[in-house]
Backbone:
C-alpha cells in the first residue's frame, strides 16, 4: 500500500484512495486527531507521515496487557 502514498501531504481525496476510507471518514479522523493532518481553509490535508503511521497500525490488535507486564503463560 505504501506505493500509493504520494511524496507530499495528501488531500482528503488522496488519503481516501490510499487508505481505503471515505472522504468524510478521513475528515472526521483528522478533526478528532486519529489521523495526523490539518485544515487549510476548507480543505483537509493529511500529513504524509500520518498516513504512513496509520497504515502501520492497521491490523495491529489492541493489547489488553499493561505495557511493562510480560504476557501471561
Residues:
Amino acid at each position: 500500500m505504501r506505493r500509493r502514498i504520494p511524496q507530499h501531504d495528501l488531500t482528503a481525496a488522496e488519503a481516501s484512495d490510499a487508505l481505503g476510507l471515505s472522504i468524510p471518514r478521513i475528515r472526521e479522523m483528522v478533526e478528532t486527531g486519529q489521523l495526523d493532518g490539518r485544515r487549510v481553509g476548507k480543505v483537509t490535508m493529511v500529513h504524509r507521515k500520518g498516513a504512513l503511521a496509520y497504515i502501520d497500525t492497521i491490523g495491529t490488535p489492541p493489547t489488553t496487557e499493561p505495557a511493562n507486564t510480560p504476557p501471561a503463560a
Remarks:
- Residues 2-56 form a domain with the Arc Repressor Mutant, subunit A fold (CATH 1.10.10.10).
- Residues 23-32 form the longest helix (10 residues).
- Strands lie at 10-11, 37-40, 43-46.
